[in-house]
Amino acid sequence: MLPYNLYLFFVFVAIDVPSLKCGDVVHLSASESADKLEAVPSLSTAAVSSPVPPVDTVFSFSLLSSFPEDLEVSDYCSDLLHIFGQRYVAYVNCLVPAARPVKVCQSCYSTYGSVVEIYKNISSDQMGPGNVTCRDSLLRSDRLMLVYQLYSNLESLWEDSNCAQCVTGHLESLTNDTLYFMSTLNQTLTCFEKYQQGNHTELCKNCKSAYGTLNVLYSQMEQNSTLCIDIEDAMNMTRRLWSKNFNCSFPREENVPVIAVSSFMLFLPIIFYLSSFLHSEQKKRKLIHPRRAKSNTSLMNIQDKLS
Amino acid sequence: MANITKKVSWSSRGDDSALTGEGTPLLNGTEIPKPSRQVSMSLDYDNIENQLFLEEERRMSHMGFRCLEISRWVICGLIGILTGLIACFIDIMVEKLAGYKYQVIKENIEKFTEVGGLSISLILWAVLNCAFVLVGGVMVAFFEPIAAGSGIPQIKCYLNGVKIPRVVRLKTLVVKVIGVICSVAGGLAVGKEGPMIHSGAVVAAGVSQGRSTSLKRDFKMFEYFRRDTEKRDFVSAGAAAGVSAAFGAPVGGVLFSLEEGASFWNQMLTWRIFFASMISTFTLNFFLSIYHGKPGDLSNPGLINFGRFESDSVAYYYYEIPLFMCMGALGGLLGALFNSLNYWLTIFRIRYVHRPCLQVIEALLVAAVTAAVSFTMIYFSNDCQPLGPEHNEEYPLQLFCADGEYNAMATAFFNTPERSVRSLFHNQPGSYNPLTLGLFTLTYFFLACWTYGLAVSAGVFIPSLLIGAAWGRLCGILLASFTPTSPIWADPGKYALIGAAAQLGGIVRMTLSLTVIMVEATGNVTYGLPIMLVLMIAKIVGDYFQEGLYDIHIKLQSVPFLHWEAPATSHWLTAREVMSSPVTCFNRIEKVGTIVDVLSNTSTNHNGFPVVVQPAKLCGLILRSQLIVLLKHKVFVELARSRLSQRKLQLKDFRDAYPRFPPIQSIHVSQDERECMMDLTEFMNPTPYTVPQDTSLPRVFKLFRALGLRHLVVADDVNRVIGLVTRKDLARYHLGKHGLEELQLAQT
């Protein structure tokens, strides 16, 4: 249902642009369906040449859906739009179940590729059959620019997820790095599964090498910046499993030596200050006495005057 | 009645020998002290308008004065550029060395977390710290002790008119720069901003003279500027350039110079100083942009980079102002506590830790303890935070945290202090938990307090900011937790900034310049009002308990520092009671032997001598430095008669000897020459400032402050010299708890 509605909506918007330009608000209702049937063609033709005076006819959505043909959006373009809709839905359908745990790159890169492809077709300025280009009519005929918006949303998702790092250039397959990481991850996870029952110390000991290789691999990929959200998320989950669930982090077990060394260092200054207090000769300050005209010091004068 | 008899006895003695200075020695003690290395001297800002000066002025064309004005601007430009370059050098070196150190320790810690033996990492950290501090400490303690500390008190004194020896030498600059790099890289709780200001001042003093006495090179440039008045102007420009390079705050720099040296100031100078500080900031920016690989980007701010506050977190509302003011009061209290502790510590150090090797050992101990405390804090911290996507943390330490998380205590301790300040200002709300911040504040407070005053070059700005930012952020977090419904306004970064301002204001007690510096360094005028209020309150509260840190150190060095105003209740004190008396005077035509004797008398060590015609009528004032030059060139009446061809002494000869006039001991005067006479008429200042003996202390004080006087002759109604007021006589008086008090100045 969704793609067809969208398609219709686009047709409608494309037609109605000139009137919107004139600043009129168009009410959609089914009441005045009668004159609209004639009004649409004339409006469209007028739109090509010059802005028309405000039209107060009101379109009906349901009637428009049964509208046989429109002059502005060619068959070719509406076909493109239709396909775009289908692929868009397919991609979104793929994305949503892959949201948690994140697998958006590995499972949906091909559907994303098809969306990109069709959008490329729409936005290319090459003439299709019948010398029409759909770029202007589909993408920028109105202020909403829905097709563009929808696509750019997907694009920003794709960029945020860094999927391009894990997929080969033409969105054909996952990169070797990614595949290798996945297999290493699987090894680690199988190891986890194997020892999950019973004592976790056993797990920590036995899976340490697998987990360690995974960690090293991850940090390598981090440095090469070949990480995408799938890998990051998988790694995060594994780390959480390792550190929180299985409690395999390093224990704090060197308290005594650390405390001993640092308290030794803290004692040094105390000894230092004590010894310099006891052994170093005290530097006496030599006071400069003012030479005054009077014999008594000025402080005494102050007191005299105050009293 | 007593003073009359005293005066009689003085005048009778004066009649006897025409010089009367051999009475009581200035020093308390029987042994004859050798000329101490530390004797601080006043600067002669007053222009000596003697005949030589007038002659030179006559000879100088209109064009000559134009050229002088232009060369002043050129010098200011040079000061800016050189200061910027030094700042750049310090910044890059600190970054490199500290980066290397932290990388090594981080790898070591990572290794030993796994296999055990973290106490070895602790020792490694301490040893690395000590190694850096050893280099810095040895340089400072053995080569140039004056380069210790932040240098701001010394520059304050210089601008005030007291020259602490060797404070603006090239050697000091070198030691200062290397010292500060070592102490920051050595992990001490110090900053590099104060030393930057000192460096700027030294650069200015050096450049403006067109020569270096340390390197024995004379470029024959800028000879006209070789006197105290001109040099002081350039030094204030240099200090401003230093501030502006350190904080990226050109206006703050100008205001710093204005606030600290404002007694002698004119508007044209302001504009020139501003030029110097602007040039300095942008030189720094330019070179840092090259270093960071973005050549030509001039928007990189100064050495201390507080980062930009984003627009949504800068918002503050009227109801927050009282909160800010409370924080200001807290800052004042903590600042006063800091200063008191540091005061006692400094006294202890002056008394007992005065030998250079002890000072170095003390610095090493502080470095080791800093490492030990930091490590222990990090080790026992349970505050783990997830690594951010943009990696704000320079050296994240995992230690016992879960994988993918880092130890939050380590971002505060395991970092250069400047970076820690930045992360306290800008990290996401929730990057620190309150316990971490509380412990950090507490330890860093004592560490910073302990560190300031060591024999290493180190500033106190950044540690204060860091302490303040930590407890400020803590306040922000607590406030947010009290009001769970609207946590938006209590952005912890904002409170960190306010706390930092409060703490810094509470410690150094600067007002106007500090406000502008903070505003400029954060790049945010919006915060002008709260920062100003906070600094104001911090100063008021702090002053109630204790003086500012710089003032304490100036006082402990026994520098005769003249504050902005005379003590409030001192109007009844007159010049007669303040002045030194009797005065050593010279006759206008004086015997060389007498002059040599007076000058070589180490117990008096006077610097200015009134010149009198009999009977004791004042006709001029001559300085020790002038007399020495005269003796060196043997300008004796008899010689002039015999050798008519002898070149006439010019003002240039006095300038060439400036600023290191040879000591009197190095001038040889033969027995015959002792009998010669010397005519001082041409060289003395014929119109010295005089006051009648009933002038009140505040009046005298104002003359000193506004004119930059060094000697003020007190004359009676028939213009006879009866006393001499110097800076030391005025600086004794201050307003204490029980009214006016007289301080005893000490020979340090």
TrEMBL record, chain A:
Alphabetized UniProt keyword annotations: Membrane, Signal, Transmembrane, Transmembrane helix
N-terminal signal peptide: 1-22
Superkingdom of the organism of origin: Eukaryota
TM region(s), chain numbering: 256-278
GO CC annotations, alphabetized: cytosol
UniProt xrefs under PANTHER family: OSTEOPETROSIS ASSOCIATED TRANSMEMBRANE PROTEIN 1 (PTHR15644), OSTEOPETROSIS-ASSOCIATED TRANSMEMBRANE PROTEIN 1 (PTHR15644:SF2)
Protein name (database record): Osteoclastogenesis associated transmembrane protein 1
Protein source organism: Haplochromis burtoni
From TrEMBL, chain B:
Domain annotation CBS: ranges: 684-742
Molecular function terms, GO-annotated: chloride channel activity; chloride:proton antiporter activity
Record key words, sorted: CBS domain, Chloride, Ion transport, Membrane, Repeat, Transmembrane, Transmembrane helix, Transport
Membrane topology category: Multi-pass membrane protein
Region annotated Disordered, chain positions: 1-25
Subcellular location per the Swiss-Prot or TrEMBL entry: Membrane
Database matches in Pfam families: CBS, Voltage_CLC
Skewed-composition ranges (Polar residues): 1-12
Taxonomic superkingdom: Eukaryota
Gene3D superfamilies given in the database record: CBS-domain, Clc chloride channel
Gene Ontology cellular-component annotations: lysosomal membrane
Coiled coil stretches, renumbered: none
Transmembrane segments annotated in the record for this chain: 73-94, 122-143, 173-191, 234-257, 269-291, 321-345, 357-380, 435-455, 461-483, 495-519, 525-545
InterPro entries: CBS_dom, CBS_dom_sf, CIC-7, Cl-channel/antiporter, Cl-channel_core, ClC
Protein family membership: Belongs to the chloride channel (TC 2.A.49) family.
Protein's UniProt name: Chloride channel protein
Origin species: Haplochromis burtoni (Burton's mouthbrooder)
